[in-house]
Amino acid sequence: MPFNMYSFPKPLTLETTSEALWKTNDSHAPGDNGSVDFGKLMDPRPRQLESHHSLDERSLNDIISSGLSSPRPPRQLETVKSSECLEALLSPSIRTSVSTPREYHAFEPHPMIADAWEALRKSVVYFREKPVGTIAALDPTEDSLNYNQVFVRDFVPSALAFLMNGEPEIVKNFLLKALRLQSIEKRIDCFTLGEGVMPASFKVLHDPVRKTDTMIADFGESAIGRVAPVDSGFWWIILLRAYTKSTGDHTLADMADCQRGMRLILTLCLADGFDTFPTLLCADGCCMVDRRMGIYGYPIEIQSLFFMALRSAKSLMKPEGEGKEFLERIDKRLHALSFHMREYFWLDHVQLNNIYRFKTEEYSHTAVNKFNVIPDSIPDWIFDFLPLKGGFFIGNVSPARMDFRWFAIGNFMAILSSLATSEQASAIMDLMEERWEELVGDMPLKVSYPAMEGHEWRIVTGCDPKNTRWSYHNAGSWPVILWMLTAACIKAGRPQIARRAIEQVETRLSKDQWPEYYDGKLGRYVGKQARKFQTWSIAGYLVAKMMLEDPSHLGMIGLEEVKRMKPQLTRSASWTA
Length: 577
Hints:
577 residues; 4-stranded antiparallel β-sheet; 20 helices; 39% helix; 9% strand; disordered N terminus; Alkaline/neutral invertase
């Protein structure tokens, strides 16, 4: 069959830029900072782009300001099986009846786009003949282990790709199935987990004889280290908002079950305890960095996702009944959390100099060194790494401890959630440009920096053979982070940074068969234990490309900055003048 280029989205060029068990036995049948008007950009309604302009920073402003007034209603498309997808992609006559990428007739697509869509559709998982997610990887050369499961965090870029392509059905099904799994009892040994915990993953077992499907969830009891996924609940809330913004359908979020699901997640996070900080205290390995890497305490990734989930829940939660109390608690926590993170986690040249000059053993509320950080504990590498222009949120802050490592997901999600101020977002972009070789290298992007080696690696990771230096979560390079970088760059008004990273990815990611991660100081080598055809590497690339083509997609995942994030105060009944 001849190749038809109109079957694929056309990219714009950017010139400057338990196992717990739920069984179902039913039978089934076969620019510069500030240059972007973010208020308009956050409008998620799809629109038709001008076909003859390149997307530099100046034309990006023109497109955003001129093209968002004519909404196109979201399309409810039929989900196709992987066996049908290639024919559908190549035949324009089939496009009218099946879900395939949107048409952009004026531009040549990159060949990787066709490859990516085909691979993404092959990864779709069906439950009772309905699509409910995508498996982590489809590598025929390796044992599946748990890579044949649908991971909550891994599905997010796949969900965004389907939403951007006008295919919300799989996302809605996933949200409802994860919500159903949340309601089952979760036990590890003799201990019962909190009611609001979302699963880390689930898998679907098909019985062709009985014609039944069984869904099996993992809440951490089968995970390496037996750590519950703190981030799963946050990603679920964030994805629920993305679905609502993309489709305009509020009925899902307004369902009593969804409202209850959000409240259960937030109950775990907002419960009173012994905490003296508004940040969340977490175990090691509780998020994307799911092995022992010294992130225990208050990791930046969790705090950024927590902040974004709170803001997303605030926009989705109804004020009736228990919702009113939760909204008030959310407001108070957002105010405290934003202050704490911007004040104590932010590091630039000035703040580093202040920490370097800290006095110790200070007492009382007038203390400057509030966490009693010993200046001699500052690692030597940070003095050379941090430029005069630029900054970032460091990895962790807790009593007598500051983890100065760079963690990409936490910083990019801080930009997208507006936990970072516009000035801080620009400083993070400045750092990316100044330290491109260290943070991006040959294959975007470093999940953390720098790598731990020698004695530090042995003590912190417990001699983990998977997290050796410049590999996996120990400063390995993960292509999936490309979508977060792209979204953050668009929001910060610096799309040319994302374009540069995408161009690097396009030189080899598809040729290397979409690996999970890359090894080496510059990310030149396919990871020693990396799975091929890793779904979120595929989806992350597609989402990045579609965001650059249509920046209004950012409205699904980005939140505008609120200048005065203060809780609404009410006067006590006992107050007298």
